[in-house]
Fold Centromere protein P.
Amino acid sequence: MDARRAEVRALEAEIAALRRACEEPRAPGEDTSRARKSLQEIHQSDTGEWAASKDLRGHLGHLESELLFLSTLTGINIINYSMKTEDLTSTENTEKSIKKVLQRHRLSGNCHMITFQLEFQILEIQNKESLSSVITDLNIIMEPTEYSELSEFVSRAEDRRDLLMFFRSLHFFVEWCEYRKCTFEHFKEKYSEAVRLPEGAASSCMVVQSPRQPGFELVIVWRIQIDEEGKVLPKLDLLTKVPQQALELDKNRVLETAPLGFRALLGVLGIEAALESLITSLCVGENH
């Protein structure tokens, strides 16, 4: 009986102690401190996520600025790009710590007025000592197709699977096309009565005709060639179109040797000065 009373008293004492603890006023700022601690934990978590997001945005912005710089520098703009990978590692290669991965790339873009689509595959082989990559397939589609020089060059680039040569040569080819167009437009504007562009300024042909001698014409054919190594070079030729009577009177064979003389003039004066000299000798001289 006494033991039970002792247990009851002990329980009553514990209950009373718990009640006093609940009724005791908390220290000033204790709730605020707990809330502040909770907010700090939340803030630290959000700050970490925000910092990571900020770093990602900064990295993306840096890549975009680099891409814009390269596009401005080369004139090549990549519009769409995708890549798929396939693990070709066999069981035997795995045992030898050799990993093979095939990457399938697709991209489309333009270089000024010329658009292109590329599909190529890259095989990566990695072992303990090194990592090697090789282009195993390359397919190029280009528009417009009226540039015969480009069609031949594209076939060579595909056969060699040489992406670097393709982009480098395309860049310089387009630069020469733009220069040719600007040069033709300049002389057409300056000598409007004498210069004709039958196929437009973007073509490879400019005709210089004599205002005083109908039927007497000089035709400049300006081609842009890409050699076997991908080097882009201009090639200008002069063709003469004169009446038969003028040929018969040309005892010194000036007209016959004019193409060779024009090439020599190009070597001495350069393209623009040689064309200027040719036009003025044919047209301006007749006015004096």
The longest helix spans residues 30-74. Residues 74-144 form one domain. The CA atoms of residues 223 and 235 lie 5 Å apart.
